[in-house]
Design goal:
This protein has 13 helices and 12 strands. The chain has 365 residues and is of the alpha/beta class. A 6-stranded parallel beta sheet has the order 2-1-3-4-5-11, sandwiched between helices.
């Protein structure tokens, strides 16, 4: 009898122990991804690269329940410091905003291999020891050496071609102009040559005035007075549509267009929204890099485990499409159904691979 009671007691104790053990190991919930944005110098809501990237993080929060945060950079020397701040907080993904952060993002990706890095407007060019290659020989294999880094770039020639169609259709004088910052930066040249080819595809007789602001990179993108002067010179040659690819210098170029009551076209982002409102009266559209959707796509690839390292080209064949023209805003009436069809058809042909925006004029200086 005593033996039976003893066995029963042992069984009860065993059941209690099992129940307690089960209660102590709850089933883990889904992973909450932590995603941080390090901006370029400026403000978060800049209607440009910083804001587009932050909107992509907000999309990731909505779509995946991600925890998101941002650090607004005050000084370029803090780029890496700000990236490390997210690493120290155990963030899974760090997004960096713009070309200027490229070298520091490359270094950070090498230092913190367990963190995923995504950089906008950043082609990944490295040495064999994983360092930024300032000589642009690009002898290191980024896929093998930096498998945690996606550098997002965009097909500027395609975007330039599309706004070229618009410019070639809008001109009344058969003269249009484009200003680049410097001819040693390939994306600048691609935008401008694409613009030229697009304009001539719909208007073979159009004269495209093409020039660069400077041979000194420290001055090429930061001289609005020079840009305005170049714009005035082109207007003096009868140009009635101007396309800028020159940063602050290009803003001056567009100011000249507005002052003369002719049309201007912006670059990279929707500059009707990002530049001073005084320029909205003449900015028809912009050759746009689809930053928000491309950053969200890169984040999605990480979360789904399908991310690809190295330089990721966003273009007409990307899903979603990586380039395009911005909204026409107040100037929708300028764009006829026929012109819009030409833009749409060109985009479709680029997607199909049957239209090369760097022909007939090669995308070289």
């Amino acid at each position: 009898m005593r033996t039976r009671y003893g066995l029963a007691l042992l069984m009860v104790l065993a059941l209690i122990a099992t129940a307690c053990q089960a209660a102590a190991t709850p089933t883990p919930g889904p992973k909450v991804w932590k995603i941080g944005l390090v901006t370029d110098v400026g403000q978060l809501e800049d209607k440009s690269f910083n804001e587009a990237s932050w909107l992509a993080l907000q999309d990731a929060k909505t779509q995946f329940g991600a925890e998101i945060d941002n650090i607004v950079t005050k000084d370029p020397k803090d780029y890496q410091v700000n990236m490390k701040a997210f690493v120290d907080r155990k963030f899974d993904i760090v997004v960096t905003s713009g070309f200027a952060l490229g070298n520091d993002t490359t270094i950070a990706a090498g230092l913190y291999p367990n963190v995923k890095f995504i950089g906008t407007d950043q082609g990944v060019c490295i040495t064999k020891d994983k360092q930024p290659d300032t000589a642009f020989k690009c002898e290191g294999d980024p896929v093998a050496l930096l498998p945690n880094y996606q550098g997002l770039i965009y097909n500027e020639a395609q975007a330039g071609y599309l706004v070229g169609i618009i410019a070639g259709s809008l001109t009344k004088t058969n003269v249009i102009g484009t200003l680049g910052g410097i001819n040693t930066i390939p994306p600048v040249v691609k935008y401008m040559r694409g613009f030229e080819n697009g304009a001539k595809s719909v208007n073979p007789d159009v004269n495209v005035l093409l020039t660069y602001a400077s041979t000194d990179i420290t001055k090429a993108f930061n001289d609005s007075a020079k840009g305005k002067s170049v714009g005035q010179q082109m207007i003096g040659q009868d140009a009635d549509v101007l396309f800028q690819v020159a940063g602050l210098t290009g803003q001056g170029f567009l100011e000249a267009a507005c002052d003369a009551n002719i049309w201007g076209i912006g670059v990279d982002v929707d500059q009707w929204a990002s530049l001073p409102s005084s320029l909205q009266k003449c900015i028809v559209t912009s050759a746009e890099k689809k930053l928000r959707s491309s950053v969200l796509s890169a984040i999605t690839r990480v979360i789904n485990g399908t991310d690809k390292a190295g330089t990721i080209v966003n273009d007409a064949s990307s899903d979603p499409v990586g380039i395009g023209v911005s909204d026409y805003h107040d100037h929708k009436d300028l764009i006829s159904a026929d012109v819009q069809k030409k833009v749409d058809d060109a985009l479709a042909a680029m997607k199909a691979g049957t239209l090369d925006p760097c022909k007939p004029q090669a995308c070289t200086p």
